[in-house]
Amino acid sequence: MNVIDIKNFKKSFGKKEVHRNVSFSVQEGECVGLIGGSGAGKSVLLRSLIGLEKPDSGEVFVEGENVAPYTEDQLIEIRKKVAYVFQNGALFDSMTVYENLAYPLREHTQLREEQISKRIHDLLDEFGLTANDHVYPADLSGGMQKRVGLARSIIINPKVVLYDEPTAGLDPFNTVKIQEMILRLKRKGTTSILVTHDMPTAFAVCDRIYLLKNGMVGAEGTIHDLKKDPEGLLSQFISGQGV
Ligand SMILES: Nc1ncnc2c1ncn2[C@@H]1O[C@H](COP(=O)(O)OP(=O)(O)OP(=O)(O)O)[C@@H](O)[C@H]1O
Ligand SMILES: [Mg+2]
Q1: Which ligand 1 atom is nearest residue 44's CA?
Q2: Most buried one in 33, 69, 141, 225, CB count within 10 A?
Q3: 8 A C-beta contact, residue 83 and residue 104
């Protein structure tokens, strides 16, 4: 079954037609890359999956339900299932790493404090952040903040994770750490969409890629298939030909 199905998505901002007609789907357990030039509409599509944007027309199915007409109350349930990893981590500055991670658990689960503590410490270990629980976000490096942001997004075991440029601005060490985290979640069966300009990361973690161009899907396929065609849009995009 497709966990995500976007059908005939159309969206304009003022006179600017960003999505002329976009359809794409993601199967259970797949990691799908969404690439395309700046302003192609990648983030808007991702945001529509949790109701932060509404299409002018078209459908946005999450596990078979069209969330496009959902009210804010209905969207709360969707946002428990579908985690959005914000580019800057979106951490609460006045809270420690521990408090940041505890927040969604206290908000959305019935776990007792000792269970919360265990979950947080397990996740910090898994993400290479051991012993950072009492640190404030401002005292962490940008790469570590991003890892904490990712940890917070996935701490309540979402079924789907949407990554919006998770490796932008990171050094190679932290980039590889993020790739490892995405792959680890994928091995656990998490379904994901990765919006990125970082092609090595897309190639390392994605099963399939969609390339947006002129408000439509310009190319779609497995990385292997798309790379095989040197004249294809993906090859042109990678080589900087501005598709
Ligand atoms: N709230 C908004 N109001 C007006 N225009 C918007 C709004 N949100 C997005 N846009 C426009 O829609 C287009 C697509 O934006 P989007 O953020 O999805 O691009 P993107 O593909 O994610 O680009 P980038 O790679 O630079 O992040 C852009 O031209 C942007 O200016
Ligand atoms: Mg974007």
Answers
A1: 18
A2: 33
A3: no
What is the distance in A from the centroid of ligand 1 to the CA of 34? Answer: 14
CATH 3.40.630.30 assigned to 2-90+160-238 = no
Report how far apart, in Å, the C-alpha atoms of 110 and of each of 57, 79, 96, 113 are: 38, 17, 21, 9
Tell me the three state secondary structure of residue 48: helix
Whether the CB of 92 sits within 6 Å of ligand 1: no
SS (H, E, C) 194-216: EECCCHHHHHHHCCEEEEEECCE
Q: What is the structure's pLDDT at 108?
A: 87
pLDDT band at 53 (very low <50, low <70, confident <90, very high): very high
Say yes or no to pLDDT of 242 above 80.
Answer: no
Strand partners, 21: 216
pLDDT at 243 over 80: no
The domain ranges of the chain are 2-90+160-238
Beta-bridge partners for 212 = 217
- In what order do the strands lie in the sheet containing 2-13? 65-66, 57-62, 2-13, 16-27, 216-222, 208-213, 31-35, 191-195, 160-164, 82-85
67 lines ligand 1 (CB under 6 A): no
- Note the pLDDT of residue 98: 97
Task: Let me know: does 180 contact 133? Beta carbons within 8 Å.
Answer: no
The stretch 69-88 carries a mean pLDDT of 90
Q: Is 162 helix (H, G, I), strand (E, B) or coil?
A: strand
